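Backbone description:
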Amino acid sequence: MKTLSSIIILLLVATGSVFAQFPNFLIHPSGNNQIEPSIVVSPQNHMLMFCSAYTISGSFRSEGIYVSTNGGATWFGTDTCQGQPITTGHGGDPGPIIDKDGVFILTHQGGFFPGMYANFSTNNGSTWSDNFTIAQNDQDKGSPGTDNIPTSPYYGRSFLVWTRFVSPFPVVISYTTNSGTSWQTPFIQINNSLPGRQSLAPVTATSSNGFQCVAWASSLTTSPFNEKSIGFAKSTNGGVNWSVQESIYDCNGVKTSSQAPWSIRINGYPSMDIDNTGGPRNGWIYIVTGEKDLAPAGTDPDIVFHRSTDNGATWSAGVRVNQDPINNGRVQFFPYIVVDGDGGLNVVYYDNRNTPDSLDVYISHSNNGGQTWTDHMISSHKYYPKAVSGAGAGNQGDNIGMTYFDGKLLPVWMDNTTGKYQVWGAIVDVSSIGVTSISSEIPESFNLDQNYPNPFNPSTKINFSLPVRSAVSLQIYDMSGRLVKTLAESGEFSPGSYSIDFDGSALSSGVYYYSLRTESGILTRKMVLLK
């Protein structure tokens, strides 16, 4: 026992820990309005990132090209995509992609020429191809994706899904097999929409279980035009043919053009991601939406989560993601979900729980497949939202975004604190957002409690207390002293008591040790996993 404890302590001292807050930064400061940001990371080089936004300056419309080659530490770029025709061929709704070959692809709406278009760049966004016309006339809200599963027969194929604004208002799809040089035309219609409904804001994702899937909001075609259910489809042949469920579960979306107290438009559009980690929840599909007046949502807009554990055949009951008191008159909207490398779930959204007239940005985290959630404020400042001039009634943008890389999240959002809407970001260490504060009362001593339950299968709770503000590292080791899991390793914690859930699903039965390192010292305890 003494030998093992010594090994653990030596490991902790030798490896050290870098503790950081979540400083907010501007992606590309400019004098133009930047809204609806999206961000992706290269599947081959996680230091390479491509962010885009709908950029507006007077009557001019385009899409921003913002690039980082060092994991988001610094950025360069422009508010204008240079793909010809520059002044008439760009109209927002940007969809960035980095495919398996490192090619940047940008999908977007047209400006003077309505429709769906795409450009590609082979030099990290420095120069761009001319517009490729994917579809003309009456198209809206495109969302891209790429198959980056190396074992997939369609590895490297990139997709674009959008709504065709002609009855029956279906979801349609096109794809490219040559990094954006050309796209499948004519596009493929996926569904037919329910009677009295339109299929809006589709999103797409690839499963390592061998299929491409699409989800959308089935929304009323008459007032109040809100989202009433979620539709879902999947393809096992690279997007050519589809099996369709027009409604997988009911919802009551929050779509409005005048959300109080700001008179801005918000929506209940879905965000979807799939666990492709190879872990115990591999293949599970997750969807979040903005809802109200239908349980588990309250009477004000909340974020609601559903999951499928059988490739989309059936779906769970809803779970309320945001953990502020229900029916408290506060508003949460624009959720975006990302699965991290450990299979944890992370949802970023706007939230006014702290100040009724202003918005913060939160991330909610779950490490048990969405059964329970903890909330973490990410923004360092709040803002008072208002419509962007020339963008449409109440429009401050329709979405925010997030990506994951190497144990970190990078959420992107827009706010107007500089006088113009600008895209902001923050680098968030996943290990720092699984910890929940359970008491702000200052304890008398530094303490690490025995986990409960113990023995456990597969989850247990670990509590610790801090009498003073301190950096914290909490790690799990096996009997040989090998590090098997880091539960917390960045951020400073105020005095108080904290709790974190540990999921041992990916580990074998046996004895494990959990060690808490703070500026006051190191404590280690034993726990037993029995399967």
